[in-house]
Amino acid sequence: MDEKAEKIPQNSNNDFMKLEDWDNHFRVMSDPIVWYETWIEDDGKKRPSRTAKPLAKEPDNIVIGKYGPQFNKYFWAFIVWSYDSECLQFLQIDKKGVLFDIENYLSDEDKCDPRKYDMIVTKAGSWVDTTYALRVKDNKPVSKDIKAERDKLSPFVSVGNHLKWAYVLKEAREEMKSNAGPEGDLPF
Question: Taking Cα atoms as reference points, which of 73, 90, 72 lies closest to residue 81?
Fold first, then answer.
């Protein structure tokens, strides 16, 4: 099997980049979606409800998390290239400190487009003592291999599907595979 094809996440859970302990190195590859998320429970299953504006009142079936109700959590979401996983993934950021740091970079004319530089979010600590720090690397073009992966998958990606709790990248890969030809090989 082709080396690059082996790096494509086979499990839909791998479509989502999670901020792990220590350095999380990525490159933003899409425009962000900026919404609110409330976790609810239906028929014993927990799922997010995502909305463009905060909900006016807390739903009756809201999920109570470690720190209380999961209600109207503000987030930004992007398709990113994860250098650790070496693939495109979906990253949802709801940590206010990280969002504030990114916003500061966006106001800097040299760093106003996060698709032009790599970001590293460092996570340290646990539970209520968890801290996050953002740093960026100097502007540099994304590698040709990463750009090629993005360009091949992008016609099949609808970031807005994330709002419906869809597996954005998994669905895009499945659609791309079904359009790949008789062998069904991915064009990577």
Answer: 90
- Structural tokens at position 126: 């646990």
Q: Which has the minimum average pLDDT: 111-125, 130-144, 153-167?
A: 153-167
Tokens of 167: 């597996």
DSSP-assigned letter for residue 94: -
- Write out pLDDT tens, residues 173-187: 888 888 765 444 433
- 32 SS3 class: coil
Q: Which residues have CB under 8 Å from 166's CB, separation 6+?
A: none
Task: Count the neighbouring beta carbons within 10 Å of the beta carbon of residue 131.
Answer: 10
Residue 151: CB atoms within 10 A of its CB come to: 9
